[in-house]
Design brief:
heterodimer, A: about 90 residues, alpha+beta, Signal recognition particle alu RNA binding heterodimer, srp9/1, about 45% helix, B: about 110 residues, 2 helices, about 25% helix, ribonucleoprotein (chain A), SRP9-like (chain A), Signal recognition particle 9 kDa protein (chain A), RNA-binding (chain A), cytoplasm (chain A)
Chain lengths: ~90, ~110
């Protein structure tokens, strides 16, 4: 059901996540451990779970951007289809 | 679970990050918020309730303290800028890509 995936797959599953978020019942979880130096982002609808774990500083910006885009999608109403088309 | 205003939530979230620097994790969860205040009955539906489509519930915890806030489409722009800056400023303990270093230690920088 769940699995972590590589940075190269991250972009590909990005589109899948966008489609996910359009439906309700989806949650996004962000977990940060400063003492261990790792960050983890999970998108799930309780059926499928996408998980990305990293300990690289360069991924923080990517994850934070992704996180913001997901938030915007959740909050957007009729503009959902427009938001989906923009990268 | 403490429901706060956006600005207060950001302040408290900064505090959570600072508290967890030496040990522990910070969990941030967000999902869509219908605006429901009553549980949905198994049969039928709640009268006079129309699910709202433009709100997002943000929750944060360190395992002990819980905070939350609701962000609507009106505030999302302003909130998002502050929130992104907060995340970037606080999530600074990860490994930097250093090709020159010979001994790569797995310990995060302080």
């Amino acid at each position: 059901m769940s699995g972590s995936f590589l940075a190269s797959d991250f972009r590909n599953t990005f589109e899948n996540c966008i489609l996910f978020v359009v439906c309700s019942g989806v949650r996004v979880v962000l977990k940060y451990r400063h003492c261990d130096g790792n960050l983890c982002i999970k998108v799930t609808d309780d059926v499928v779970c996408l998980l990305y774990r990293t300990d690289q500083a360069q991924d923080v910006k990517k994850i934070e951007k992704f996180h913001s885009q997901l938030m915007r999608l959740m909050v957007a109403k009729e503009s959902r289809s427009a938001a989906m088309e923009t990268d | 679970m403490v429901l706060l205003e956006s600005e207060q939530f950001l302040t408290e979230l900064t505090r959570l990050f600072q508290k967890c620097r030496t040990s522990g994790s910070v969990f941030i969860v967000f999902n869509t918020d219908d605006g429901r205040t009553k549980p949905v009955p198994r049969k039928g539906h709640i009268e006079g309730f129309e699910p709202a489509d433009n709100k997002c519930l943000l929750r944060a915890t360190d395992g002990k303290k819980k905070i939350s806030t609701v962000v609507s489409s009106k505030e999302v722009n302003k909130f998002q800028m502050a929130y992104s800056n907060l995340l970037r400023a606080n999530m600074d303990g990860l490994k930097k890509k250093d090709k020159k270093s010979k001994n790569k230690k797995s310990k995060a920088t302080q």
